[in-house]
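R.M. (postdoc): so does anyone remember the format we settled on? I'll just put the structure tokens first.
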């Protein structure tokens, strides 16, 4: 996008924000005052962190009632899963052999890490998953949060895990993946990373201008319904700016000569509209140097981007016309098809892109035969599209992860 186009778009945003500002914003789009900073020190036990975070969520959320309370709390709370001690007992020092910290993505919740957490628990890992500051309460809590608070939460998670496990691993989705990379570049005790659409680069042309845009508007796009209990639908400009700062830190570390020499398992969609998959592949090939590394790259067979001679990169087809799946979206990678919320027959359908088109929105929400995929210009031009919210090849991804872990143990 040209500089002139960006300026024109910003002017339009300013006008729309002015119009929106003529009425009072609903409570969910205002800061709660409870969740913009990470308020725990390293001495706080993880179970206490969970309990106090639960109090914050209950106080700050404006949508909790008896009918949805269990779903909201389960989705948004940080959590811990311990392995079966009859198979994976703690040692004499009271530590597990392996532990992994899982970190969700921007505007998401720990819900996105749940299926993966159960997998690692079954494999004998102590699993802990944090809630990034600004998340899990109301979208307005992302208005002033900084990426430094996300880093502080990550550091807390790793330091707590060090007291309970001998060998430390990290797994992250999107922004969570970027936080994993930064922590692993700084901490030599991290033994391996599992990264899913890591945000080493942002696809949106708004990213670099987000700090400037904050002077004019708080929100990117129209006000959303915010009916998804596991993910914010309204998106703050500040949140995008903070992710961009994280990518800049990763760029600077790599430019300074730092490398990830530990094993890395990475999963990407070539059609991802949120993170820059090409940049992620470049980082994998150039800056992640272990011979044990694996990159699963989903893409259409005719996409030249997915053709690569690096033997560590595995191409997986993402085009299933018999199931009306055009390709895989950013948000689909970590969700199994049987997930009750985002899965094939789940109760949530992603149709936010048709906010201003009632007819297409109705078809997206209710038509059983609508195509699903990523919100690329090509897909949206070709058909009415629901954004894919699950990974049709989830089991195959887990088998590849199985193989990766078996190599690590040799």
């Amino acid at each position: 996008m040209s500089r002139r186009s960006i300026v024109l778009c910003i002017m339009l945003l300013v006008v729309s924000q002015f119009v929106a500002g003529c009425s009072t914003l609903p409570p969910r789009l205002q800061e709660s005052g409870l969740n913009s900073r990470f308020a725990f020190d390293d001495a706080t036990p993880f179970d206490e962190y969970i309990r106090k975070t639960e109090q914050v969520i209950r106080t700050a959320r404006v949508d909790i009632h008896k009918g949805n309370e269990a779903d909201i709390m389960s989705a948004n709370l940080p959590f811990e899963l311990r392995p079966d001690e009859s198979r994976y007992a703690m040692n004499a020092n009271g530590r597990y052999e392996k532990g992994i910290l899982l970190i969700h993505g921007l505007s998401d919740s720990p819900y996105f890490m749940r299926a993966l957490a159960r997998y690692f628990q079954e494999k004998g890992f102590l699993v802990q998953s944090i809630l990034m500051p600004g998340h899990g309460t109301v979208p307005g809590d992302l208005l002033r949060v900084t990426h430094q608070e996300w880093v502080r939460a990550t550091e807390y998670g790793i330091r707590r895990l060090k007291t309970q496990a001998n060998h430390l691993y990290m797994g992250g989705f999107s922004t969570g993946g970027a936080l994993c990379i930064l922590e692993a570049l700084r901490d030599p005790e991290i033994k391996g990373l599992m990264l899913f659409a890591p945000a080493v680069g942002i696809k949106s042309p708004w990213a670099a201008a987000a700090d400037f845009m904050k002077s004019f508007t708080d929100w990117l796009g129209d006000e959303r319904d915010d009916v998804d209990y596991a993910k914010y639908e309204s998106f703050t400009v500040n949140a995008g700016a903070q992710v961009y700062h994280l990518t800049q830190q990763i760029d600077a570390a790599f430019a300074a000569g730092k490398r990830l020499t530990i094993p890395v398992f990475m999963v990407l969609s070539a059609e991802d509209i949120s993170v820059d998959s090409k940049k992620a592949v470049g980082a994998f090939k150039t800056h992640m140097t272990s011979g044990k590394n694996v990159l699963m790259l989903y893409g259409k067979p005719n996409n030249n981007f997915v053709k690569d001679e690096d033997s560590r990169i595995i191409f997986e087809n993402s085009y299933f016309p018999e199931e009306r799946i055009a390709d895989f979206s950013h948000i689909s990678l970590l969700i199994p098809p049987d997930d009750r919320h985002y899965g094939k027959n789940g109760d949530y359908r992603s149709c936010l892109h048709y906010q201003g088109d009632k007819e297409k929105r109705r078809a997206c929400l209710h038509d059983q035969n609508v195509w699903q995929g990523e919100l690329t210009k090509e897909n949206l031009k070709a058909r009415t599209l629901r954004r894919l919210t699950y990974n049709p090849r989830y089991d195959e991804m887990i088998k590849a992860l199985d193989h990766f872990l078996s190599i690590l143990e040799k």
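R.M.: ...and that's the designed sequence above, right after the tokens. Also worth knowing: Residues 1-22 have pLDDT under 50 and may be disordered. The domain at 26-325+393-408 is CATH 3.40.50.1820 (Rossmann fold).
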